[in-house]
């Protein structure tokens, strides 16, 4: 211990010399010998020693005990009493100064040496402990979270200053009132919190618990507590150490997210305009209805409703008026059915009613008559009185079909038969079963012949970059040049072709023709980034589709990256796991994948982030009135922001108006798609762009 210094405070010279001999014999340095408090202070202030050997009775008006207390308060110097007084009164006074030893005169030299060694060693340990505690308090006091320590008896040992920021109460308030925290915890959460803190057989960090408190100002806050029971080396509990974190903001964000998800779920399952169930929710309810009907052996009625005279309303008065008409019609239909029945909007002016637990077709006929009576009064939009009727097709489960697709198809067929009778009629599927079957057979034959006779053609929708107006891509769409009915757009025949199982041939033909056309344009000098082709929902899950597309690319020479495949949004929300795998197989070919008409069926953000797509195409119904509709502007802006955040390209469909282009460009839309044109017109009009 060489180099450490000791001050001797002793008024008897002989005793002082004995102490000096012992001290120096241990290798310490004696800084001085003082016989009074005044002399002792002179030595201490010149050079503060590492230890003081203190006699109790010394010269002057201040005894050794008083001097020791003064040293303790002003200096971090340990004191060992060396005194002839051992009566209890002196000992009790000396104890108050927290001495590091008490040696009785006449002392044994070995005893004094031991006391000196132990005192200096203990003081060194105390210094390390204080530094450690200071470090702990510095860290704990500066943390944003509220740290605390409760001993094994439940007494609060430490609480960090952050408790005041979180609760409004300072640490002293918690020290003075051990029940304060329990008093500000929400009554509904208190029992769970008490049980949490009283877990005895828990080693390591205890799973977090969340609870509410009321702050000093009356504000309710959410707290997350993470605690750990601390054990000594002997396995005995030393108490509970933990952290309280203010999670009020995150809980508020969670609630906003939950409400947002509720809204998104509602949008995903309901028609945006009318609030009626959409096809997705209809499918789920339809399935439950058929399962219940099978278990309980009863019938289900299906009514397919198409409005008569709606198209002229849209053409003459515009889509805003048409939308108001559809909203009022939806409300009327809802008023006609029972609580257990379902009214859904299929799209456009088509609605469907699913009747639960009916006895026979008479119940469906009564509802059809009730609906027609409800539709008879004019619809009032402003000062306009608009008269519409409804053509209704009816089919009954199980005799007219045992699954949803069959029942929808048959109700649809019955509805067309009702239209043939004139507006405002209803017709049962069974009434015209043979004629309906023949009609479908004839259409099947016509579609098959159309492939063989090369009656299908492709038209092309150009896609432009909004930054420079340059041509960047084209979308190919299949049309039918019918020998009697003229040019039919895809919506007029593709749904039936899909039902009849012809989509595989049509898709392959369209893909091959589009790739050939891309190669021809490339050879002629028309620079085109990509060629987009729609895929039918029924084809995307085909396990052979990727192989067939790969063969088409190889046969035509079209680079895979120049082909883009478009799928509908409803495909994304149909069967997440299976559909993601199907898209992954296509993506592995190197082709691009886009979602068309996005915003119609509202897939969830989680689903959107999990599928391998490159582009979102905004539903034209959202952009059609975007210049005049603040609501549409917000929706379109949100879709564009979402696409950009996910690093998807975003394109608006059916955009020709320059003002629309300028607005879309201003909110971050990169590209727009125009209206269809023939391959010849495309080459002539756009070959130089």
From TrEMBL:
The lineage of its organism: unclassified sequences, metagenomes, ecological metagenomes. This is Diguanylate cyclase/phosphodiesterase (GGDEF & EAL domains) with PAS/PAC sensor(S). Residues 207-259 form the PAC domain. It comes from hydrothermal vent metagenome. CDD domains: EAL, GGDEF, PAS, REC_DC-like. Residues 440-689 form the EAL domain. InterPro entries: Biofilm_reg_signaling, CheY-like_superfamily, EAL_dom, EAL_sf, GGDEF_dom, Nucleotide_cyclase, PAC, PAS. Residues 298-431 form the GGDEF domain. NCBIfam families: GGDEF (TIGR00254), sensory_box (TIGR00229). One of its GO terms (biological process) is phosphorelay signal transduction system. Residues 132-193 form the PAS domain.
């Amino acid at each position: 211990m060489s180099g450490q210094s000791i001050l001797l405070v002793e008024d008897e010279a002989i005793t002082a010399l004995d102490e000096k001999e012992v001290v120096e014999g241990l290798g310490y340095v004696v800084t001085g010998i003082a016989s009074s408090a005044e002399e002792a202070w002179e030595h201490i202030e010149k050079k503060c020693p590492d230890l003081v050997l203190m006699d109790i009775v010394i010269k002057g008006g201040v005894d050794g005990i008083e001097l020791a207390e003064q040293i303790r308060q002003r200096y971090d110097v340990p004191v060992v009493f060396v005194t002839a007084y051992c009566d209890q009164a002196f000992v009790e006074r000396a104890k108050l100064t927290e001495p590091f030893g008490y040696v009785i005169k006449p002392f044994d030299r070995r005893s004094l040496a031991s006391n000196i060694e132990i005192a200096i060693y203990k003081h060194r340990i105390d210094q390390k402990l204080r530094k450690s505690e200071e470090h702990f308090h510095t860290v704990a006091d500066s943390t944003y979270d509220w740290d605390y320590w409760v001993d094994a008896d439940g007494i609060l040992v430490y609480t960090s200053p952050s408790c005041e920021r979180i609760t409004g109460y300072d640490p002293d308030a918690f020290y003075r009132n051990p029940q304060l925290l329990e008093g500000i915890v929400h009554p509904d959460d208190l029992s769970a919190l008490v049980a949490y803190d009283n877990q005895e057989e828990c080693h390591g960090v205890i799973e977090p618990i969340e609870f509410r408190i009321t702050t000093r100002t009356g504000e309710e806050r959410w707290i997350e507590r993470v605690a750990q029971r601390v054990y000594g080396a002997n396995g005995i509990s030393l108490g509970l150490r933990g952290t309280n974190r203010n999670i009020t903001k995150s809980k508020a964000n969670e609630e906003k997210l939950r409400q947002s998800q509720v809204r998104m779920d509602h949008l995903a399952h309901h028609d945006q305009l009318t609030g009626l169930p959409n096809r997705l929710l209809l499918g789920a309810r339809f399935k439950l209805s058929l399962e219940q009907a099978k278990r309980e052996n009863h019938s289900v009625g299906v009514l397919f409703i198409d409005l008569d005279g709606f198209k002229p309303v849209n053409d003459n008065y515009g889509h805003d008026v048409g939308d108001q008409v559809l909203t009022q019609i939806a409300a009327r239909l809802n008023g006609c059915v029972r609580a257990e029945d379902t009214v859904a909007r299929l799209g456009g002016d088509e609605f469907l009613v699913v009747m639960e637990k009916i006895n026979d077709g008479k119940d469906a006929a009564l509802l059809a008559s009730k609906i027609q009576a409800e539709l008879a009064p004019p619809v009032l939009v402003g000062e306009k009185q608009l008269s519409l009727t409804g053509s209704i097709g009816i089919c009954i489960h199980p005799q007219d079909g045992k699954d949803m697709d069959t029942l929808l198809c048959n109700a649809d067929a019955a509805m067309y038969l009702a239209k043939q009778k004139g507006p405002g009629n209803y017709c049962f599927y069974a009434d015209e079963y043979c004629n309906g079957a023949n009609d479908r057979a004839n259409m099947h034959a016509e579609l098959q012949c159309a492939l063989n006779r090369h009656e299908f053609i492709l038209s092309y929708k150009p896609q432009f970059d909004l930054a420079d107006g340059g041509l960047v891509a084209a979308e190919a769409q299949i049309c039918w040049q019918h020998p009697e009915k003229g040019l039919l757009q895809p919506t007029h025949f593709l749904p039936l072709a899909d039902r009849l199982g012809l989509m595989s041939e049509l898709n392959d033909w369209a893909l091959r023709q589009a790739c050939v056309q891309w190669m021809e344009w490339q050879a002629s000098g028309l620079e085109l980034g990509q060629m987009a082709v729609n895929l039918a929902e029924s084809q995307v899950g085909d396990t052979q589709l990727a192989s067939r597309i790969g063969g088409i690319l190889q046969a035509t020479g079209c680079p895979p990256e120049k082909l883009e495949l478009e799928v509908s949004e409803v495909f994304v929300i149909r069967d997440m796991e299976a559909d993601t795998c199907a898209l992954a197989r296509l993506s592995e070919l190197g082709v691009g994948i886009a979602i068309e008409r996005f915003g119609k069926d509202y897939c969830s953000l989680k689903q959107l982030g999990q599928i391998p797509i490159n582009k979102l195409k905004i539903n034209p119904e959202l952009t059609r009135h975007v210049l005049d509709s603040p609501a549409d502007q917000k929706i379109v802006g949100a879709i564009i922001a979402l696409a950009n955040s996910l690093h998807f390209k975003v394109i608006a469909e059916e955009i020709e108006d320059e003002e629309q282009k300028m607005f879309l460009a201003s909110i971050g839309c990169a590209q727009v798609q125009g209206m269809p044109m023939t391959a010849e017109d495309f080459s002539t009009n756009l070959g130089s762009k």
